[in-house]
Amino acid sequence: MDTTDARRRRRRWSEALKREIVAASFEPGASASVVARRYDVNTNQLFIWRRQYCDGLLVASDQSGPALLPVAITDEPVAQKAAAPSDAGRIEIDLPSGYRIRVDAAIDGKALRRMLDVLERR
């Protein structure tokens, strides 16, 4: 076989191996180029697989759609979280003088202007 034909032949990578290589490249402190050399894959190809993985396109063939997760039902009561105060309709104004004002959206514009004038003079 001619060497030019050998270079043109494309390697086939299984989806599982692609995910393994991508996972290795996402490990803390990992270098994409070092991982690519370790698996004998082109670095640009690795970046394509990483993008596919982030876009959800590089998944196991049996995981192409939504997955079912195991659920355990117990008799233990679930602690209720206290309802957080609603910040809907509130605005926060930071003034250059260091003051911060939090007001409700229903505040009278004239009253707000008077407060801002007083704080700007301080």
Secondary structure layout:
Layout: H1 3-8, H2 15-26, H3 32-38, H4 43-54, E1 90-94, E2 100-104, H5 109-121
Antiparallel strand pairs: 1-2
Could you please describe the fold and organization of this structure?
Among the domains are: 13-62; 90-121. Helix content is 41%, strand content 8%. The radius of gyration is 29 Å and the shape is elongated. The chain has 122 residues and is mainly alpha-helical. The chain is built from five helices and two strands. The longest helix has 13 residues, at 109-121. Strand 1 and strand 2 (100-104) form a beta hairpin. 5% of the residues are buried.
Coarse structural class: mainly alpha
The overall pLDDT, averaged over residues, is: 79
**Secondary-structure element sequence?**
HHHHEEH
Portion in strands: 5-15%
- What's the number of helices? 5
What percent of residues adopt helix (DSSP H or I)?
40-55%
Sheet with most strands: strand arrangement: 1-2
Total beta strands: 2
Estimate the global geometry from the Cα principal axes. Answer: elongated
Q: Measured on Cα atoms, how large is the radius of gyration?
A: 29 Å
* Termini gap: 86 Å
